[in-house]
Design brief:
It is a single chain. With about 210 residues, the protein is an all-alpha fold. It is about 70% helix and about 0% strand. The chain contains ten helices and no strands. This is DNA-directed RNA polymerase subunit beta. It comes from Lysobacter korlensis.
Length: about 210
């Protein structure tokens, strides 16, 4: 899901950590920052803390931490946060396209994923951005696993929409069809990873 997003900026002080780019140290820092963030946000009684975190994320001030999480296993807490971060970036950078893909997905996918995702219908740019906010809130205020499952369902619905549009474009614009097919594959893979992370969280094994 990363190639069409702006890559998070690499901040010098992460590279200046003693040991430099030592993979083991970077993974340890990723784990510690992920757990510290989740624990702090879930323990606070400050009703405005989550709004400040969302604003912080949207202003890209958290890009350095997210870059660190990107190195983490998809079966880790840091990996789960990274995928939610990417999904939020996808929605906020391309709300019109994402909402179109999701809306088409709701029309062609015969599963409960549309209900699980929980987006308002009809789903336009505003609605998908509101969904991104609700998923983020769910990570820190509700059931963490449910938030991951909602994100996974959103990815599956949007992937179905991308596949459907790819079929429409196949004869008229093969290049566009290929782009949409690639997007669908990335979204489907992300959905599988988020589902696995939700299962591990419930089992107490999302390290």
């Amino acid at each position: 899901m990363t190639e069409r997003f702006h890559r998070p900026a690499r901040v010098p002080h992460f590279n200046a950590v003693e040991g430099g780019e030592d993979p083991a140290q970077l993974l340890r820092i990723a784990r510690e920052t992920a757990h510290a963030l989740v624990n702090r946000m879930r323990d606070t009684d400050d009703p405005e803390a989550l709004e400040r975190l969302a604003a912080f994320t949207d202003e890209s001030a958290v890009d350095a931490v997210a870059e660190l999480w990107a190195r983490s296993s998809p079966k880790s807490l840091a990996g789960a946060l990274w995928r939610i971060y990417l999904l939020r970036v996808l929605i906020r950078q391309t709300p019109e396209l994402t909402s179109s893909l999701f809306q088409r997905g709701t029309e062609v996918l015969r599963t409960i994923d549309t209900m699980v995702a929980g987006a308002s219908a009809p789903t336009g740019p505003t609605e998908v951005q509101q969904l991104a906010d609700r998923i983020l809130h769910g990570l820190f205020r509700g059931d963490f696993a449910v938030a991951l499952e909602r994100a996974a369902a959103f990815c599956r619905v949007t992937a179905a929409g991308a596949t459907s549009f790819a079929d429409d474009y196949e004869a008229l614009n093969p290049e566009r069809s290929t782009e949409l097919t690639s997007r669908a594959l990335r979204l489907s893979q992300t959905a599988e990873e988020l589902t696995t992370e939700a299962r591990l969280w419930r089992a107490g094994s999302l390290d």
